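Exercise 7. Given the encoded structure of a 267-residue chain, write a plausible sequence.
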């Protein structure tokens, strides 16, 4: 792990400058911290402002960049006017990342910085990540992935660096809660955002509300399922208020990218 950190620092130090795709999550915060240490003012944090991300996430990213002493730039992305994105095929993330990385590249050109980097890690190679194709096409580098850093290692190194995000729950855009083939709408994204915000106020950290039309399917870690049952009436009432007809608890618990399970099935 220490050797990977040394290799990461060497890689970043060799860049003339970098625009960091910064969400404020575990990976991008760690990357921004190390990049800022190596590049100083030549390191810029840029965060997308979009309906597929919550306002709380955007505020958190801005605050974290300030805490790390890095310059922060907001970018407005336009996923919900893209037919390919709205259609929500299994390639949805490709179109989303192409939009984001294109804007990051343009920002870099404006600031005289040619390199864009993101926080993809080694574990991401194991999942369906069409966004990586957009990164390759636009020349975006993934330094954490290049040196083989896993999520567990990034959390451990983040803790050593004193980053408050070391134990932060994993993040993903709100569109990842909607099954492939079900069109993405602002109304669905709002239901998910408000529903998950309520669940976090109930004390659930790592939680997903998967949007299956009239059904809200909840994913929480196995150890927190009893609490969902205990708060069942309150949770059901709130989610029905948001427009869901049924509320279901997924007995397999939380798992990243669970909607990718449908890929490769016949029929």
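Solution.
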């Amino acid at each position: 792990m220490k050797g990977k950190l040394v290799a990461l620092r060497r890689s970043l130090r060799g860049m003339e400058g970098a625009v960091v795709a910064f969400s404020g999550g575990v990976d991008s915060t760690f990357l921004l911290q190390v990049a800022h240490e190596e590049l100083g003012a030549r390191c810029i944090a840029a965060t997308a402002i979009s309906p597929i991300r919550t306002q709380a996430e955007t505020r958190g990213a801005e605050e974290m960049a300030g805490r790390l002493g890095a310059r922060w730039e907001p970018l407005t992305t336009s996923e919900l006017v893209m037919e390919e994105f709205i259609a929500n095929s299994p390639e949805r993330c490709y179109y989303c990342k192409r939009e984001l990385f294109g804007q990051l590249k343009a920002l870099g050109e404006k600031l005289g910085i040619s390199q864009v980097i993101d926080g993809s890690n080694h574990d991401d190679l194991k999942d369906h990540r069409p966004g990586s194709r957009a990164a390759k096409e636009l020349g975006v580098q993934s330094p954490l992935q290049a040196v083989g850093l896993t999520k567990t290692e990034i959390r451990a190194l983040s803790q050593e660096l004193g980053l408050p995000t070391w134990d932060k729950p994993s993040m993903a855009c709100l569109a990842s809660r909607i099954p492939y083939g079900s069109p993405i709408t602002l109304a669905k994204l709002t239901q998910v955002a408000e529903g998950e915000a309520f669940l976090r106020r109930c004390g659930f950290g790592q939680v997903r509300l998967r949007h299956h039309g009239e059904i809200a399917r909840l994913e929480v870690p196995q150890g927190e399922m009893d609490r969902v049952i205990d708060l069942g009436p309150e949770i059901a009432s709130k989610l029905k208020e948001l427009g869901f007809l049924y509320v279901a608890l997924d007995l397999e618990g939380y798992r990243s990218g669970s909607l990718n399970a449908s890929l490769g099935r016949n029929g």
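Remark. Residues 178 and 212 are 7 Å apart (CA to CA). Students should compare their own answers with the one above.
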